[in-house]
């Protein structure tokens, strides 16, 4: 009796599953509407949403790759969050909250063992149509049964698992859902693989530091940075490309002294005055950017003058640009934003007393409609804000803004001290955070890390994020609110 069931388990069951399975290519085609709705490239003006989607896509791709591995059996339920682009906010009956930018936040847990069920889970969770799956020669109807039986058409009696020693997949799934991932358990499972990846990446890391130092010294740059978390090998190749351009056209780079170079999605000069080199652009395009630097510097002077004029009209409040909190704008885009706001402000003639708001700060954003006060003390002002509303809001929040600015300085010092103390106590090689993690969250995370004994972390690179992950170069990512 058990032998017959064993044959069914090993022969017939895989055939049943294969008959309605998706190939990797079919899965990608089926998920095209989903990728279009969440792809980070469509979130250029919304850095927080773009970063969340970028990180979630990495984890989703890893999950899909594991499902396609031969003999893959064990898995862990994976919780993902995406911001979904929609033409109309009320086009869906799903009651997920909308972000400040108007995108719907969707969270779901992947816990299926085949590509078809996983694809259907994702599309249904995001309220996307599944009709196009019919053209892929698969039948989506078994999906409902698959969710409840873990993709097993035969429900074995518990005595079968007790006799054969096989693990009951339903029991494993229930146990995984009951037990939340803890920091200790996750490190137990992932520290070894992270260590291997880190060890493998060490020669490339040294090469990256060497290239960065040599180019910075040769061009007298202030810094070299990357907008996104590309791998070490990718960064090295970008620096090699810049090095070749320096050798071929040294005269074109004579105007970069004291500047910061950022490798990003497009070329130009950023609103913060940094030289942007698009990673998809060829050397000829980079060369044109360097040749146009004198014109960029002239526009930068005009931009600073425009900021001063706005400041004078608003009682001395300082107009700033915060890279971590604002979209990566070009110098031209930011100048147009300032110019539009200045013209509205000049025509309204608001009665601000000169220097009455000196010491306060504000940033301009084109995708907001109401002013707000950030926890760090600066005002976030929409470019289309009604002047009367702007005046009332700044007067009402001025004192609170000054208090927030004072707290910001204290918080930044506390954060820096805790990072240094945590790095030393845990014997980390590096401790850092993603831009989407606030200082308050980082402080809370570090204080709790200092209370733990974590020998696993010795010599590791630890990134404080919103999820658990091992990056391709061995960096460990843990959520700031780990358990």
TrEMBL record:
Any Gene Ontology CC annotation: mitochondrion
InterPro entries: DUF4460 (IPR028031), DUF4461 (IPR027989), TCAIM (IPR027986)
Record domain DUF4461: where: 181-483
Domain (DUF4460) ranges: 19-128
The protein, known as: TCAIM protein
Gene: Tcaim
């Amino acid at each position: 009796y058990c032998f017959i069931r064993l044959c069914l388990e090993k022969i017939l069951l895989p055939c049943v599953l294969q008959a309605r399975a998706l190939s990797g290519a079919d899965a990608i085609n089926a998920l095209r509407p989903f990728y279009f709705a969440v792809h980070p490239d469509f979130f250029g003006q919304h850095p927080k949403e773009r970063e969340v989607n970028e990180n979630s896509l990495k984890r989703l791709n890893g999950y899909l790759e594991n499902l396609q591995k031969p003999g893959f059996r064990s898995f862990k339920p994976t919780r993902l969050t995406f911001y979904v682009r929609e033409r109309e906010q009320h086009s869906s009956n799903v009651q997920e909250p909308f972000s400040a930018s108007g995108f719907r936040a969707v969270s779901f847990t992947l816990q299926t063992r085949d590509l078809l069920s996983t694809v259907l889970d994702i599309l249904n969770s995001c309220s996307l149509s599944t009709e196009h799956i019919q053209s892929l020669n698969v039948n989506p109807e078994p999906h409902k049964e698959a969710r409840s039986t873990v993709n097993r058409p035969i429900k074995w009696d518990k005595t079968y698992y007790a006799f054969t020693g096989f693990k009951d997949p339903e029991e494993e799934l229930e146990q995984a859902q009951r037990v939340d991932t803890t920091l200790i358990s996750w490190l137990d499972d992932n520290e070894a693989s992270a260590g291997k990846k880190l060890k493998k990446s060490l020669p490339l890391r040294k090469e990256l530091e060497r290239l960065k130092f040599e180019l910075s010294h040769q061009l007298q740059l202030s810094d070299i940075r990357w907008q996104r978390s590309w791998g070490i090998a990718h960064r090295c190749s970008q620096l090699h490309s810049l090095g070749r351009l320096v050798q071929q056209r040294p005269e074109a780079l004579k105007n970069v002294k004291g500047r910061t170079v950022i490798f990003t999605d497009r070329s130009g000069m950023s609103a913060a005055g940094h030289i942007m080199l698009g990673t998809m652009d060829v050397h000829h395009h980079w060369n044109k950017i360097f040749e146009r630097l004198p014109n960029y510097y002239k526009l930068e002077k005009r931009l600073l003058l425009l900021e001063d004029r706005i400041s004078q009209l608003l009682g001395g409040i300082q107009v700033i640009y915060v890279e971590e909190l604002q979209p990566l704008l070009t110098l031209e885009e930011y100048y147009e934003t300032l110019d539009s706001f200045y013209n509205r402000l000049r025509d309204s003639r608001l009665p601000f007393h000169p220097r009455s708001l000196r010491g306060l700060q504000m940033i301009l954003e084109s995708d907001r409609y109401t002013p707000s006060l950030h926890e760090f003390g600066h005002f976030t002002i929409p470019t289309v804000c009604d002047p009367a509303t702007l005046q009332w809001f700044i007067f009402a929040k001025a004192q609170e803004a000054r208090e927030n600015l004072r707290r910001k300085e204290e918080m930044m010092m506390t954060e820096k001290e805790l990072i240094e103390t945590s790095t030393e106590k845990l014997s980390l090689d590096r401790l850092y955070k993603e831009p989407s993690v606030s200082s308050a969250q980082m402080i809370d995370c570090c204080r709790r890390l200092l209370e733990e004994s974590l020998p696993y972390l010795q010599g590791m690179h630890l990134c404080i994020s919103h999820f658990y992950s091992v990056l391709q170069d061995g960096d460990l990512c843990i959520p700031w609110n780990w358990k």
